[in-house]
Amino acid sequence: MIRPILVTGAAGFIGFHTSLRLLEQGGEVVGIDNLNDYYDVSLKQARLAKLQEFDKFKFVKLDISDKTAMEKLWAEHGDFLEVIHLAAQAGVRYSLKNPYSYITSNCMGHLTVMEMCRHTKDFKHLVYASSSSVYGGNKKLPYSVEDSVDQPLSLYAATKRSDELMSHTYAHLYNIAQTGLRFFTVYGPWGRPDMALFIFTKAICEGKSIPIFNDGNMKRDFTYVDDIVSGILGALKNPPALRIDGKGDVPNRILNIGNNRSENLMDFVKVIEDALGKKAELELLPMQDGDVPETYADIEETTRIAGYNARTTIHEGIPKFIAWYKEYYNIS
After folding, report:
1. Which of the residues are catalytic?
2. Number of domains into which the chain is organized
């Protein structure tokens, strides 16, 4: 009997792609999402419509921070032995405007998910989304999971670090296998409208200027969404070993999921221009509060544990996003 995998945030960018891959592989998925209006809800609904083409996909609208709703979900669908927890209030800059939503979604939501897992008999593995933003102002490159992450530069980053700490505590107290994944600047088809690639593409198509922070002196470890999903599923299949008779390591680990190469922002813009066949008008701006000039992932441990290998360059991935964007928005 195939047991369903629970994917939280299934209508979100990464949650959609993860659910789709599982379904294409013949898996059964229960997806949950609160469909909030942080960005265009119709995009989330369009993603769900693609998933609902599969008989083995079941969607339930709920908020992960709602303990009663989560208990009802577990009661109605049976205990989930594997959970991919991707639901969160996203966005570094938005956390400056609406801080309360981050505590509710990212901290209370994460706690509720863990509580459900710890009360599930024979639970196997909780894989959850963290973020490269936890590295804060770290000057050492590439970012390693061994680096200090005690100085986050945004509330979003602080909530993600809090999730990691709570997971360590629950793994220690209740012997629950957990893996936190620090994602590095994810992009690709069906991406979020608040991300750079989406913002730049939309502005260039509409003949508007694009915001370039820190006068363009930025580098990012841009990671294509298909590679991210491969990392998620690779990690899911390889949970940390549980303690036996109280002996052994705490069954909790943190892994980087990045592209293992840091790209200059202006090179990123150039690839978008080439894919669109149109030059961008640049609006040079100072560094944003809570932002960092460069990210770069050390993925050696992720490769060893999850068999992860980032394959997609920006020269391959950006044109795929552009093709999706034009089709979705009916742009010739």
Report:
1. 156
2. 1
